[in-house]
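Input (structure):
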């Protein structure tokens, strides 16, 4: 495996829910880091990866239990700074000769306050300016004796060893979680740690872009690459980056399944074909998709039809390119991180998400995934670096199956047309009120029900629709957006006045969970 040429920090994951936040905090400091499950971090891996520093994450296990996760002991012989967090702290103490015990009234969950225990060490630079620091604790076990060589530098009422360090070896261990928001000054601790470990903050988007271009050229040589372009941020940024690296060796395929929003197909085609001058196949397959969906109302059946047809169509058009060896995908880092599972069993499928899974094997293609190391906001930054217009980069996510999953029940052309118009009015309202960037995703769903209304002196019998707008970080959980009543009232009036076919507007105030963001 070839690793990034930047200074590398290794995060050993023991399965904490918030491990990804550690990586976020570090990336914000322009430090390159990777998360790897503890089982994969062998002595050989360590030699190959050659980290400049290591962080041991938190996790749900108890170090007291037989068979609980342990990092390889070689990690402590690397001669690089190590920071253990929560479970990482306990595992460090246990392995280095200290002692960990079960709760007995010392479990701590939630807010706690740490006060300094003795002289301020570099790790705590900028801490305790107001005597004490608020931190977030989440532990059942606690360290009852610290390992030889360590001293205590911070305590809390229930964690006498809240911050400990062995300054000779540059080993640090904290009982709390500095990566979460509830530890307001936590970012400072990471900043101090990477500074003392000698990181120079060389992980910038400009540097990443140059390195990614070099790697793409190296990987692809003079072969041809095809890329499924959806108009979403990830595939767009991947396409522009690859085009910059290999020019016309790249051909993009844009599949129009008839389930796009108003003006979307034209926008994508104009942007990539005319503005970026990319070879682009515009596969207008509306008839095919809408024909196959005719009469179908079951959400999973609809998704499966779209997923399968998408692959067929993509394969057909990619074949026109002739002799492509590579398929480009906008895979992101969160899709790549292997999760540490202690519960075993597979998770339940809520919805079968549509992507081009299985396609590379089927077509005998190798993958080019230049965004594999990036988080979503970093992809946006790279997009800006590549000169993509801000309006494009800031677009809300749009699902692969498009409007199909915003049209519960049977999909008809009439309903799709009404939905497109209503959605355009709603988004226009959101933009006019300057709310677009505060909202993670907003759209209209057309409901499979007609209701009675009165317009002028006449009776109407038209569709009802639901407005949806959520805030979210990653789409995994979401809250409904708290629009003002004025905004909602004005938007309902506009939709009913401007969109023939809708006479009732509702606002969906379900969070996720228990709801999902899309309606199907
Ligand atoms: P749900 O509805 O599951 O959606 O709460 C979470 C996020 O994922 C998007 N989504 C999809 N994206 N293919 C995609 O590319 C899909 O099949 C798909 N289904 C949902 C959804 O728009 C939201 O942002």
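Output (sequence):
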């Amino acid at each position: 495996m070839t690793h990034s040429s930047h200074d590398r920090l290794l995060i050993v994951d023991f399965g904490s829910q918030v491990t990804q936040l550690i990586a976020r905090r570090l990336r914000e400091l322009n430090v390159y880091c990777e998360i790897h499950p503890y089982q994969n971090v062998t002595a050989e891996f360590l030699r190959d990866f050659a980290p400049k520093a290591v962080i041991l994450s938190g996790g749900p296990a108890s170090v007291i239990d037989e068979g609980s996760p342990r990092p390889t002991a070689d990690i402590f012989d690397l001669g690089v700074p190590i920071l253990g967090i929560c479970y990482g702290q306990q595992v460090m103490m246990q392995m280095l000769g200290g002692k960990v015990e079960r709760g007995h009234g010392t479990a701590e969950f939630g807010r706690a306050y740490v006060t300094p225990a003795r002289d301020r060490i570099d790790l705590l630079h900028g801490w305790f300016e107001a005597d004490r620091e608020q931190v977030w604790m989440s532990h059942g076990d606690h360290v009852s004796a610290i390992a030889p060589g360590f001293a205590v530098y911070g305590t809390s009422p229930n964690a006498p060893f809240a911050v400990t360090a062995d300054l000779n070896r540059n080993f640090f261990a904290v009982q709390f979680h500095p990566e979460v928001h509830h530890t307001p000054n936590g970012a400072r601790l990471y900043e101090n740690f990477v500074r003392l470990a000698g990181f120079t903050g060389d992980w910038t988007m400009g540097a990443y872009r140059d390195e990614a271009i070099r790697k793409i050229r190296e990987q692809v040589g003079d072969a041809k690459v095809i890329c499924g372009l959806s108009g979403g941020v990830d595939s767009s940024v991947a396409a522009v980056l690859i085009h910059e690296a290999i020019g016309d060796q790249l051909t993009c395929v844009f599949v129009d399944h008839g389930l796009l929003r108003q003006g979307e197909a034209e926008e994508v085609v104009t942007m990539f074909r005319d503005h970026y001058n990319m070879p682009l196949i515009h596969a207008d397959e509306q008839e095919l998709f809408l024909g196959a969906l005719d009469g179908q109302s079951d959400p999973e059946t609809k998704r499966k039809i779209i997923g399968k047809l998408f692959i067929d169509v993509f394969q057909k058009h990619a074949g026109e390119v002739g002799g492509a060896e590579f398929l480009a995908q906008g895979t992101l880092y969160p899709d790549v991180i292997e999760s540490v599972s202690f519960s075993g069993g597979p998770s339940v499928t809520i919805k079968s998400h549509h992507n081009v899974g299985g396609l590379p094997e089927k077509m005998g293609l190798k993958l080019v995934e230049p965004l594999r190391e990036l988080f979503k906001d970093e992809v946006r930054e790279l997009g800006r670096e590549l000169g993509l217009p801000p309006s494009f980069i800031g677009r809300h996510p749009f699902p692969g199956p498009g409007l199909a999953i915003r049209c519960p029940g049977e999909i008809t052309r009439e309903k799709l047309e009404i939905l497109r118009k209503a959605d355009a009015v709603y988004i226009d309202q959101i933009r006019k009120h300057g709310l677009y960037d505060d909202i993670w995703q907003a759209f209209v769903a057309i409901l499979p029900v007609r209701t009675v209304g009165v317009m002028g002196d006449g009776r109407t019998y038209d569709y009802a629709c639901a407005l949806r707008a959520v805030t979210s970080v990653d789409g995994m959980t979401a809250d409904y957006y708290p629009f003002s009543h004025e905004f909602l009232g004005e938007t309902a009036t506009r939709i009913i006045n401007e969109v023939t076919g809708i006479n009732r507007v509702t606002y969906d105030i379900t969070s996720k969970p228990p709801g999902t963001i899309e309606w199907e």
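Notes: The pocket of xanthosine-5'-monophosphate is lined by residues 351, 353-354, 397, 399-401, 441, 475, 512, 516-518 (CB under 6 Å). The longest helix spans residues 299-321.
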